[in-house]
Structures are given as structure tokens and as C-alpha cells.
Design goal:
- It is a single chain.
- The chain has 12 helices and 23 strands.
- It is α+β, with helices and mostly antiparallel strands and 417 residues long.
- The chain folds into 2 domains: 307 residues, 2-Layer Sandwich (BirA Bifunctional Protein, domain 2); 90 residues, Anticodon-binding domain (Rossmann fold), CATH 3.40.50.800.
- The protein has a 5-stranded mixed barrel with strand order 9-10-13-11-12. The chain has a 5-stranded mixed sheet with strand order 20-19-21-22-23, with helices on both faces.
- β5 and β6 form a beta hairpin.
- The structure holds adenosine-5'-triphosphate and magnesium ion.
- The site of adenosine-5'-triphosphate has 14 residues, from β8, β13, β16 and α8.
- Magnesium ion binds next to β13.
Length: 417
């Protein structure tokens, strides 16, 4: 993509109404646009990052057998009344509205009840189970606080997945597969070393733990206790003697950390399906309630977490897998035919290139933008680089660039990193 055609512009100054580093950098880079507190539009660069995260998440969910769907944002009041979750006393984050005829509707903050209702049309016998489905959906939540930039929004992209099984045993098999799939996602996003499966309270419908995926992050809103030797953590909210006894661990085994919840998986059991009437006939001809699980990933929150973690005083440092572009190609000086043909060659070979072909920006502005926007590799073609024998290549965090003949830029970019 040509930067001269990108309608967004970078900003030198931090927005005065944002405290969070992620929002400051993402707004300055033109990744997101603030509609209002906790509500951000995704601009071309930001959308590319979100799409890359979605691709990774989608691949990992499909690997464990889940099928992609999209549920609706407008939701039926009656469905939520069945489990007593329409009431604002029980769910305090609803956005609600009314149809012209006066009927009340809600805007989806979760899709647990609607999907259980929907499955009543498709699940009737053990032969139709198990079913695993997921979606990427904008969730609407009337959050009290919206101070952490894109990490806590009133409208945000979530991947939510639901599992419908015959028995608890089948459910637990899938739950364990989902745990592994989630860990793969965070690993592929470059967060593997700092993301922990974290025991947390089970929520309204289960006495057991739910499992959160918590990424160590100063800007996170949660406090977790990370086991010093083993690879798990416990959320502060349940870090007590009873929980420690269940886990067979001592207080001293843990270290306190600030963290951001980037995913959460739940075992619901059969209670919700009983309340809502989702039953199936097992192989013995008995009528049984379906065993339910629910699995969420905070897709746009991850953009914020990644920005918090992968950034320095100059800007963002995207991990290669999710950078909007792999290469930021910078042309210094006009009429640089060599830069044009390098852009053409790289894009034809499938390299994602942001080409700074702007005639009205100085070298200093272009370099500052490259650092702010954070593509993993920077390639500069200038009179000076050509005289030195080609293009100057530099990784985002490297301090020195090296000159590579134009004919070898492609292989230098694809083999080195
Ligand atoms: P939190 O405790 O942070 O409010 P939650 O437990 O209410 O989150 P879930 O219902 O478990 O959230 O949603 C699944 C995932 O969606 C969370 O793990 C988180 O990554 C993301 N998420 C939840 N609320 C928000 C929000 N307001 N803005 C952005 N992402 C969110
Ligand atoms: Mg949660």
C-alpha cells in the first residue's frame, strides 16, 4: 500500500484525553479513531492488525473442530428472561432499546442465551452432538470504566465459542483441547511466555473454577498470583486458603503480577440448557440436557495489550505475525525509479509492504513515522543508499542499518526474520 494514498495521518502529539499508552500510540499512528470514551473505530492499519489476530484465532478454533457463524447484535428479551439475565439487577452492563411496537430488545453483550436457544432448532439426539461453533462479533457492554484505551471498551470485538456435548466427560475433552488452542493463539501472537492459564471464579453457573488467560501487563486491570515454578496462576479474587488447598499449593509459591485478561473459558454444565429447554435423546433413548461450555477471546483488547507490551519510546514494535505490513519501504527523494521497482517486486512476491512514497514529507518525518507505526523491517532507498550499493535495511529495534544490493533485498527480508 502506498502511504501517499493512506487517508490517515500520524500525529506527533499524544491525544490529551487518553491516559493509556495503547490508545495514545494507536491514535497517533492512525490505527484507531475515538468516537467517544471506550468506543473506537478501526482504521485501515488497525483493521489489518485485527484481521491478522482473527485469522490466527480462527485457524486455531477450526483445528479443534469449531465452525464459524455470526449471530445477531439485536437480541430477544424473552430469551434472556429464561435464565433471569435480562434484569439490570443481575446483568449491569446491558444496552437496551425498543422496537417501534414497544417490544424491548437488547444489544448483545454475550451470546450464550441466544445460541442455546438457536441450537434447539438443530440438536435433538445424540447423533447431532457434539457441536462447536465460534464467531467474531462486536459486543456491546455499558462498562462503568473506560480508562484503559482499547483494552476496555463499550463496543469491542470478541471471539466467542460455544461447545454442546452429551456428557461432562466429552465436554472436558473439548475444554482441554480449547485450553491448548488458546495457548497456541497467544504463542502465535508473541505472548506465549507471559500468558498464564489462571484459575478464576466460575461465574454464576458453576462452583468450579473458570480459566482465564492472563497476560502480564502493567496496564492490565487484574492482579494475579503466578506460580514461581509451575506454569499457572490464580486470580487475586479467589486467592485464598480454600483455593490453595484445592490446587495443593502454598501462598509462598506465588508471585503477584498485574495482568490483562485476554481470554476466559467456562464450564457451564447443564443448568442453562435445563432452564432454556435444550435437551437431546441419548443412545438409550433417555432425554438429557446438553452440557455447555463457553470460550471467549478479547480480540480488540489484544491489540491494546500487544501495543502496551511491544512498544518503546519511539512507537510500536509489532511482532511479525500481526504487523499490518511486514516491511516499511521508504523512498527518500523524488523520481526514485529504483524504489518503485523494489515496491513492485516485493508486493508481486507476496511481501506486505507499506511504501512511503510521499513527496511532501521529510526524511526525519518518514523515519519517525516508521518508528511510530512499528513495521518489523524498514527498507530505505535514497540517493545515498544507492551510492553505497543498494537499499538500507534495518529491523525496527536495531540501531544500525546495513546496505543490501537491490537484487538481494527480497531474500534478505525473507531469510533473516
Ligand atoms: P473483564 O473482567 O475484563 O470485564 P469479562 O470477564 O467480563 O472481562 P468475558 O465475558 O469473559 O469478559 O469476555 C471474554 C473476553 O472478552 C475477556 O477475556 C476479555 O479479553 C474480553 N473483554 C471483556 N470485556 C471487554 C471490554 N469491555 N473491552 C474489551 N475487551 C473485553
Ligand atoms: Mg472473564
Amino acid at each position: 500500500m502506498r502511504q501517499s494514498q493512506l487517508f490517515t495521518r500520524t500525529k506527533r502529539e499524544n491525544p490529551s484525553d487518553e491516559e493509556a499508552k495503547n490508545a495514545q500510540l494507536l491514535i497517533r499512528g492512525g490505527y484507531i479513531y475515538k468516537e467517544m470514551a471506550g468506543v473506537y473505530a478501526l482504521l485501515p492499519l488497525g483493521l489489518r492488525v485485527v484481521n491478522k489476530i482473527k485469522k490466527i484465532v480462527g485457524e486455531e478454533m477450526e483445528k479443534i473442530g469449531s465452525q464459524e457463524i455470526i449471530m445477531t447484535t439485536l437480541q430477544n428479551k424473552e430469551i434472556w428472561e429464561k435464565t433471569d439475565r435480562w434484569s439490570d439487577d443481575n446483568v449491569d452492563i446491558w444496552f437496551k432499546s425498543q422496537l417501534k411496537n414497544g417490544a424491548e430488545v437488547g444489544f448483545g453483550w454475550s451470546h450464550e442465551e441466544p445460541i442455546v436457544e438457536m441450537m434447539k432448532s438443530f440438536v435433538s439426539s445424540y447423533q447431532s452432538l457434539p457441536v462447536y461453533v465460534h464467531q467474531f462479533q462486536n459486543k456491546l457492554r455499558n462498562e462503568v470504566r473506560a480508562k484503559s484505551g482499547i483494552m476496555r471498551c463499550r463496543e469491542f470485538v470478541m471471539k466467542d465459542m460455544y461447545s454442546f456435548c452429551e456428557t461432562e466427560e466429552d465436554h472436558m475433552k473439548f475444554y482441554n483441547l480449547a485450553t491448548e488452542a488458546y495457548l497456541n493463539v497467544y504463542k502465535r501472537l508473541g505472548l506465549g511466555d507471559i500468558t498464564y492459564v489462571t484459575s478464576a471464579s466460575g461465574g454464576a453457573f458453576t462452583k468450579n473454577f473458570s480459566h482465564e488467560f492472563q497476560t502480564i501487563c502493567e496496564a492490565g486491570e487484574d492482579v494475579i498470583y503466578v506460580h514461581k515454578k509451575e506454569n499457572y496462576a490464580v486470580n487475586e479474587e479467589i486467592f485464598n486458603d480454600e483455593t490453595l488447598a484445592k490446587l495443593g499449593a502454598q501462598k509462598e509459591d506465588f508471585e503477584m503480577k498485574k495482568a490483562a485478561e485476554v481470554g476466559n473459558i467456562f464450564t457451564f454444565g447443564t443448568e442453562k440448557c435445563e432452564k432454556m429447554g435444550l435437551y437431546f435423546t441419548n443412545s438409550e433413548g433417555e432425554k438429557k440436557p446438553v452440557f455447555l461450555g463457553s470460550y471467549g477471546v478479547g480480540v480488540t483488547r489484544l491489540v491494546g495489550v500487544l501495543t502496551e507490551i511491544f512498544s518503546d519510546d519511539k512507537g510500536i514494535v509489532w511482532p511479525r505475525e500481526i504487523a499490518p505490513f511486514a516491511v516499511h519501504l521508504i523512498r527518500l527523494g523524488e523520481d526514485m525509479a529504483e524504489a518503485e521497482s523494489l515496491y513492485k517486486e516485493l508486493t508481486e512476491k507476496g511481501v506486505e509492504v507499506l511504501f512511503d512514497d510521499r513527496a511532501n514529507a521529510t526524511a526525519g518525518e518518514k523515519f519517525a513515522d516508521a518508528d511510530l507505526l512499528g513495521m518489523p523491517m524498514r527498507v530505505v532507498v535514497s540517493k545515498r543508499s544507492l551510492e553505497a550499493g543498494g537499499a538500507e535495511i534495518k529491523g525496527r529495534t536495531e540501531t544500525e542499518s546495513r546496505v543490501v544490493p537491490l537484487s538481494e533485498v527480497l531474500s534478505a527480508l525473507t531469510t533473516n526474520h
